[in-house]
């Protein structure tokens, strides 16, 4: 069943055109913390659609939505809405270059920031090659990709004083598949402040999922700009750049014709902060502001990670399960030389994205296919996202699906046992 064509979803489950039912850990590519067709979100959209789907003007819901973001997110003095996470990172980089009058940007190997030309290399191996045709060479765009584990190289690069920005996926590479080294965010905050670069947090995945105030609230590290999408818009199209007023004021018109033409950041978008997206976003943010849905999703993910770890240990599988908040990742060891090195199934093998993202595509595809046949849909790679509506029964049913899949992969020789 690849790809799945979905007809409808409710809570933590969805159904395809052939009537197959899935426990959904894709969750709208992690956009649905509250699950499918949450009643509060559906009601908000129904109320908004009767007022008109699009105006081309600002509207009251636009302001309410922005005010909620500012209340929840430590870095948000101001908010500029866009239509996706890709647009958010594109706009944030433009802002950083305008604010600093510099061009170079530092990003990290394996971290995903969308598909525009600036960032379309660096997240898949080999990290120095773009993942698509039709883009200019990264060396002509001032993008520098470094391992996030090499603090010496990071500090040396920033000491040159010519960087406009550092952008980091705060979950770790590819929504946490390769977790961040301890202390990295704190180091980046200190070094960017010292050398005059703008610090950009990509919280497209983590924003409103790890905490109502994002990873920045949990870590106590406040960036200059934050890129948001997914949960921000409650399952509708939508994204934003939020940041401190000093940087964000570059959008402002002053009334001075010369300055307004040549001295500010121009940003357009027909559907920015569209009424339906704003309505869904408001309903979602209001519901999660007290943190209760986040804790519910976190609990389900912790239960699932524990169950998968038990399965890996029971079958003596050379593999790991790990993750933060409501996310989970599964990594199978495919290097024969490392099979005897594995301790606990809950150990993170390494923060090196070349290893964690280096499982053979044939294994990943087979794993996903078996799970879909068993009744589970995942996010990219080998992990997924839990929602507040997932139930203990969902987790138990999912555990049975993972059990049958692991046994089949062992039988086929796709994965290995420790030893």
In brief:
The chain has 15 helices and 14 strands. The protein is an alpha/beta fold and 419 residues long. Strand 1 and strand 2 form a beta hairpin.
Essential attributes:
419 residues, alpha/beta, seven-stranded mixed β-sheet, 38% helix, 15% strand
Strand and helix map with partners:
Elements: E1 6-10, E2 13-16, E3 21-24, H1 27-30, H2 39-49, H3 60-72, E4 78-82, H4 85-100, E5 104-108, E6 143-146, H5 151-159, E7 163-169, H6 173-176, H7 184-195, E8 198-202, H8 214-219, E9 225-228, E10 239-243, H9 245-248, H10 257-262, H11 275-288, H12 292-314, E11 319-322, E12 327-332, H13 353-356, H14 361-374, E13 376-377, E14 384-385, H15 392-412
Parallel strand pairs: 3-13, 5-6, 5-7, 7-8, 8-9
Antiparallel strand pairs: 1-2, 2-3, 4-10, 9-10, 11-12, 12-14
Helix pairs in contact: 2-11, 3-11, 5-7, 12-15, 14-15
Describe the structure.
The chain has 419 residues and is an alpha/beta fold. It has helices spanning 27-30, 39-49, 60-72, 85-100, 151-159, 173-176, 184-195, 214-219, 245-248, 257-262, 275-288, 292-314, 353-356, 361-374, 392-412, and strands at residues 6-10, 13-16, 21-24, 78-82, 104-108, 143-146, 163-169, 198-202, 225-228, 239-243, 319-322, 327-332, 376-377, 384-385. The strands form 3 sheets. It has a 7-stranded mixed beta sheet, with helices on both faces. A 4-stranded mixed beta sheet has the order 1-2-3-13. β1 (6-10) and β2 form a beta hairpin. α14 packs across α15 (392-412). The longest helix is centred in the C-terminal third of the chain and has 23 residues, at 292-314. The two termini are 34 Å apart.
